[in-house]
Amino acid sequence: MTKRTQPKFTSEITVRKVQDMGGDHMVVAAARVSTSGEEAYSYADGTALTKDGLPWTPKDSVGLISYLVKQRHGTPFEHSAITFFVHAPIFVWREWHRHRIGFSYNEESGRYKQLDPTFYIPPMDRPMFKVDDWKPGRPKFLTINQLGDEIGWETAQNRYEQLCANLMLSYKTAYEMYEANLAMDFDPGLARDCLPVGIYSSCWVTCNPRSLMAFLSLRTHEPEAKAVSYPLYEIEVAARAVEQIFAEGWPITYKAFCENGRVAP
Amino acid sequence: MTKRTQPKFTSEITVRKVQDMGGDHMVVAAARVSTSGEEAYSYADGTALTKDGLPWTPKDSVGLISYLVKQRHGTPFEHSAITFFVHAPIFVWREWHRHRIGFSYNEESGRYKQLDPTFYIPPMDRPMFKVDDWKPGRPKFLTINQLGDEIGWETAQNRYEQLCANLMLSYKTAYEMYEANLAMDFDPGLARDCLPVGIYSSCWVTCNPRSLMAFLSLRTHEPEAKAVSYPLYEIEVAARAVEQIFAEGWPITYKAFCENGRVAP
Amino acid sequence: MTKRTQPKFTSEITVRKVQDMGGDHMVVAAARVSTSGEEAYSYADGTALTKDGLPWTPKDSVGLISYLVKQRHGTPFEHSAITFFVHAPIFVWREWHRHRIGFSYNEESGRYKQLDPTFYIPPMDRPMFKVDDWKPGRPKFLTINQLGDEIGWETAQNRYEQLCANLMLSYKTAYEMYEANLAMDFDPGLARDCLPVGIYSSCWVTCNPRSLMAFLSLRTHEPEAKAVSYPLYEIEVAARAVEQIFAEGWPITYKAFCENGRVAP
Amino acid sequence: MTKRTQPKFTSEITVRKVQDMGGDHMVVAAARVSTSGEEAYSYADGTALTKDGLPWTPKDSVGLISYLVKQRHGTPFEHSAITFFVHAPIFVWREWHRHRIGFSYNEESGRYKQLDPTFYIPPMDRPMFKVDDWKPGRPKFLTINQLGDEIGWETAQNRYEQLCANLMLSYKTAYEMYEANLAMDFDPGLARDCLPVGIYSSCWVTCNPRSLMAFLSLRTHEPEAKAVSYPLYEIEVAARAVEQIFAEGWPITYKAFCENGRVAP
Questions:
Q1: Residue A7: left if φ>0, alpha if ψ -120 to 50, beta else—which one?
Q2: What is the rounded (10 degree) CA torsion for D176, A33, C134, C90?
Q3: C91 at the B interface (CB within 8 A)?
Q4: Residue B255 — left, alpha, or beta (φ > 0 → left; ψ -120 to 50 → alpha)?
Q5: Secondary structure element (H or E) that encloses residue C31, with its range
Q6: C88 phi and psi angles, rounded to 5 deg
Q7: Which of B32, B74, C35, D167 is found 20 to 30 A from A36 (Cα to Cα)?
């Protein structure tokens, strides 16, 4: 608990894939047991054949996977798993941890270690200025450039710089007080009460394609989704990183998810 | 989003019971269906009789409930429910929300409203100074009086006052910056990044006796429990309030829980 | 374990409401905490006022509840609960028990009691004859009358009677063998292996409006639903009874569910 | 739906491991993030070192894993996963499917295919005769040999043969009626109502070490367990197969589970 470092301000949110299990073939294997019983095992061990007697690959079952997503048959998407290691501000974890089902977490603890002085600052291109007719339920924001078109770029830029200055001042003060509290030998779980939700924390996240798609549907904004979500910018950054990793590992499932309005089955 | 008030510093964590359903009789009704089938309904509608032909009450089934807890037959404890309205600092929510199963939450949102400037300050009798042989896994702390016996009461008291001053300074700075950010029309979900985990938030919590006992077993410290937990002081304050409400509504279940080492069935 | 009775053949599936908690007002209370913090408590304790200063009732929040369903904000629907006592054949339980989240069960056990000889026979008006172009994924069936239009009513009627005779013969044989096995002092959990999935069993079911709507969306057939389901007839009978009880207790939520394509939020 | 085969009677219950992810190292990686933050990643990617600077292996963390199990810190055991393909009678699935949390299932469906005529017959060495002081809560049974010591081996053997004859007669009748119903073009989900719970079905099962240990603790009988369970013989057969596969993949976790009274963390 003695490590001290200079505050670090960053906009980066990192999502690393640690391990995974399954794939599109397991979706088919799981679904086919309904209609094929024991024969469904062949989709898992790679011995399945197409009707033409050729080696089966998940591409031969694009229609089935799409049907499962569309009809919201969700359970076949639970026989895969993936673990991420994520570095993100606490305000992102506050939202992410609300996903309870099909999600497992283990996070860095302010009770057990001194938290690193790494703090979140928004990137310049983050939409962040409230529009005139702003409503909480459908939050819409302008970037600096967009606001600049209205009130002048320099004024807009100044506001952004002021925001960053405000955050950094507050972050620094909080961390200084935190370290002062620790130095007086207070319970680390009390000393940290002044730390901001903008401080970073590391967390393991394990989920399955079904719970992952539910996460994506709520934490990404797609205008053409069947139920359009308006997530916080920063959790969407994490969700988009998750989405890309998912798309690589379960390409057919991912395509079906996108083509069916991004509704989780 | 225009309301402004003076910062308020408090140690109070409030748990209000909003509604409940069921009771000890439903534990018996649920368990008895295994052995009695349709007749088990009589335990729910109040028509059950004892072997002696007298009106049955849950007190007649103390042994059964104790047996269920001891043998970890957990499902009969899921046919009741209770809702709380809780006012607690965000660092308490960070822990509470990790209870995923049998727990439902809806919490105040910094994206949708200006958070009130209510901040947590520890009470003087909180154990909070690390003991010399302190270990993270089994955290143990001294109160001001206990530390005072070692280093003098006034020195101990000064440290506490310094902690409070540190926290309050940091809290105030954070809230000032937060309001400044809001005044510049920034996304409230960004403006708040400097707010501390010591700020208060309101949250609905609905659970059932089974999930509630799991919460109690991990978030209260009882030296004689079968698996002794070392919870954060503040979540234990909330858990003890929950415990009292639970004890009043499910007295026989609660007694069985305590007598069987506080292991959730 | 000595009770013996004559076999009973029935088509009845019963769903009794045992207890409930909450209502439409709790949906609003839960949702409003996001934007109102502590003031949301007033929706739960009945002190809330409308903008006009009149006593608030859930009818004043029809739009909000509809919005929550449409946008799939599901958590506000978890702060209510309801318990049913259901008498249904085992093949219904086989499907119902697959609903894992937000559902609690306690069922009669063949290991702990002699199961009653009550068996399921389909009612005459059940759609039950496969159509010519029948496909498993979209099962469609004709009633006796519909089939009778094609092949003659008497022939159709005869088939139905033959089905019932087949089922009853098999049921009787199974129960006789079951009783013979019990009479030889075999483990009841082994003696029952010949009992059919058409035998009845009693079960407690506790859920919340969110999990209940997920159940309804999958276990009822509505041609105009956004994702049309093709449930087994008998679980739909149970689901429709559940639906009616739900509609009475949460009328505004129920209406929103129906008007938004019966997609569970 | 036209395949017909001769009835097959068997005692075999098969559990095949299909895939897995993680291992003991992920338990340590997950737990260490509390105290080490980002450095915990090294336990997952194989770069961790011991205090002596040697390559770390899970054996170096036996004490930590044991501590986690003992103190019931359960979440670190959720960052692994395993999928089984299981062939077992429906009465086994009736119990297994009651494990809701951390378990995913996809099972063969009598609505979508003709079920194979494979039926369960107990092996000769199954404890199956009720003892004189038999009680449902603590079921205890004698094998043929044990009963034979009391009433003569031949008499005991005859009883077993009679049981098997009863089951087989009932199974055959049920399957004949089932096929007759199918031949009349009835809904397969209705035609099957006479099929016994002793018929076999295939099912995918995906779980994680935490949910798997909860399953083992309830579905295996170990006299020295902290909470002794009295599972049905046949689900214990499946559970023991699961246990062996688990022991091979997570040897240190498994050892900790056994040494701490087989209480799932």
A1: beta
A2: 50
A3: no
A4: alpha
A5: helix C24-36
A6: -155, 160
A7: D167
Domain count, chain C: 1
3-state helix, strand, coil in chain C (%, to 5): 50, 15, 35
Q: Which chains touch A (3 or more CB pairs under 8 A)?
A: B, C, D
Q: Is residue A75 part of a domain?
A: no
Tell me the residue range of the domain where C211 lies: 8-23+80-259
Helix (H) or strand (E) holding D87: strand D81-89
Alpha-carbon distance B79 to C83, whole Å? 7
Task: Calculate what percentage of chain B has a pLDDT beyond 70.
Answer: 98
Q: How far is C-alpha D198 from the geometric centre of its chain's CA atoms?
A: 16
Q: Which of D72, D75, D217 sits opposite B227 (nearest CB)?
A: D72
- The amino acid sitting at A78 is E
Per the domain annotation, does B61 fall within a domain? no
User: How do the pLDDT tens digits run along chain C, 265 residues long?
Assistant: 445 578 999 999 999 999 999 999 999 999 999 999 999 999 999 999 999 999 999 999 999 999 999 999 999 999 999 999 999 999 999 999 999 999 999 999 999 999 999 999 999 999 999 988 877 777 889 999 999 999 999 999 999 999 999 999 999 999 999 999 999 999 999 999 999 999 999 999 999 999 999 999 999 999 999 999 999 999 999 999 999 999 999 999 999 999 999 999 9
Q: Which two tokens stand for residue A80?
A: 């895969």
Residues 6+ apart with CB under 8 A from D227: B70, B71, B72, D217, D261, D263
Which among D72, D216, D232 is the top mutation candidate for probing chain B, defined by the most B β-carbons within 10 Å of its own β-carbon? D72
Q: What is the mean pLDDT of each run of 10 residues along chain A (265 residues)?
A: 75 98 98 95 96 96 96 96 98 98 97 96 96 79 94 95 98 98 97 98 98 98 94 98 98 98 94
The pTM score is: 0.97
Catalytic pick among B111, B219, B240, B262: B219
B79 interaction partners in chain C (CB closer than 8 Å):
83, 104, 106, 204, 206
Q: Is A124 on the interface with B (CB under 8 A)?
A: no
Average pLDDT over residues D50-76: 96
Q: What is the CATH number of the domain that holds A199?
A: 3.30.1360.170
Strands B118-120 and B8-10: parallel
What whole-number distance in Å separates Cα of residue C192 and Cα of residue D196? 9
Contact A201, A231 (CB under 8 A): no
Cβ-defined contact of A103 to B103 (cutoff 8 Å): no
Among D89, D162, D196, whose Cβ lies nearest the Cβ of C174? D196
Select from B10, B21, B68 the residue whose CB has the most chain C CBs within 10 Å, as the one to mutate to test that interface: B21
Residue B146: exposure state from Cβ atoms within 10 A (0-12, 13-18, ≥19)? middle
Burial of D7 (0-12, 13-18, 19+ CB in 10 A): middle
Nearest to B84 by CA among C29, C209, C73: C29
Pair D260, D70: CB distance under 8 Å: yes
Residue B57 domain-assigned?
Answer: no
Nearest CA in chain D to A45: D18
- Is residue B121, in this structure, part of any structural domain at all? yes
Write out the DSSP string of chain A. -------EEE---EEEEEEEE--HHHHHHHHHHHHHGGGGHHHHHT--B-TTSSBP-GGGGHHHHHHHHHTT--GGGGS-EEEEEEEEEHHHHHHHTT--TTEEEEE--TTTSPPP-EEE---TTS--EEPTT--TTS--EE-HHHHHHHH-HHHHHHHHHHHHHHHHHHHHHHHHHHHHHHHTTB-HHHHGGG-BTTBEEEEEEEE-HHHHHHHHHHHS--TTSSS-----HHHHHHHHHHHHHHHHHSHHHHHHHHHTTT---
